Amino acid sequence: MSRRIAANPIPYWASAGKTREVFAAAFADFQEIGFTAVKADVPDDMTASEYLDWIDGYGLTPALSLFNSPFDETVDLAGEVEKARRFAAVQVELGLDRTMVSSMARPERLAQPAVGAGFSPARLDRAIEMCGEVCRVLQAEGLRPLHHSHVGGIFETEHEITRLLDDLGPDVIGLGPDTGHLRWAGIDPAGFIRRYADRLGGIHIKDVFPDLLDRRDLSYRDATASKRLWAEPGLGVVDFDAVLAAIPPSYDGDFMIEVDEPSVESKRESHRMSFDWARKVLASRR
User: Fold this and answer.
1) Model confidence over 7-45: pLDDT tens digits?
2) Which one, of 164, 233, 234, 173, lies nearest residue 200 by Cα?
């Protein structure tokens, strides 16, 4: 893999759904802006081959995607393993060799994000065990699994994330951090990346405004909807100079731009701002 500037069209589909029409609007914007890679989300009614042909028409190639699971008592291991096999088959057919792995939606953590609400040692132990089994399946199918930090999930705080990474070890799971989610959870992104630099295989470039980082009265959805949480890269408080300095020279993954909720009204303008920043700031790292 090469170090591409990729885009995740999450603000296009977050409320409208992952339909062909929604993706087509995003892809057209990305083509005009200059992106050449996009997070690989294949619509349910499309084969991997059809998807490759489709995005190629916009000058795009598939980039690092994400396998999501609650990794909690609401799902069973056999079901998640089968889901992981199906996911891996598609990603490998797209030509990808790695994937992010994440957990995103514990109800109590969506209600009170970024503080480890409702922490349970037993639940964490079970989640680590389940995640390890899923990662081994992904590896067996040809994908290198990378843990992706995400507020609202079962691996939210620094303690939980480091337990996962340290317990499973580098042979089972690598690192695919999100700079914005780490910062919201009170974790220094640069320091965290340095700690696990030898396991880095992908990264989401995301910024956060300082306004809501210490607020404890807003839900995940309310904080996101405020447009004062997520920021286009360079507008917030993430120290990207330190983040880039922490990335080892051997890093061969993508730089994926992700702004869950643009701070400006236009999704296209948000991605143009992000791409212009990335082209200037990340140029020496590609």
Assistant:
1) 999 999 998 888 999 999 999 999 999 999 999 999 989
2) 173
Kindly provide the b/e burial profile for residues 83-103, where b requires at least 16 CB atoms within 10 angstroms of the residue's own CB. Answer: bbeebbebbbbbebebbbbbb
Measured distance CA(276)–CA(233) in Å, rounded: 10
- Reading the block at residue 193, the tokens are 């990346």
Which structural domain range is residue 128 located in?
5-285
CATH number of the domain bearing residue 276: 3.20.20.150
Non-local CB neighbours of 266 within 8 Å, separated by 6+ positions? none
Q: Looking at the 3D structure of the chain, how many domains does it have?
A: 1
Long-range contacts of 159-162 (CB under 8 A, 24+ apart): 159/116, 160/116, 160/119, 160/124, 161/187, 161/192
Whole-model pTM: value is 0.96
pLDDT mean across residues, the chain: 96
Per-residue buried b or exposed e for 42-72, using 16+ beta carbons within 10 Å of the residue's own CB: beeeeebeebbebbeebebbbbbbbbbbbbb
Q: pLDDT digits over 147-201, tens only?
A: 999 999 999 999 999 999 999 999 999 999 999 999 999 999 999 999 999 999 9
* Residue 1: pLDDT band with limits 50, 70, 90: very low
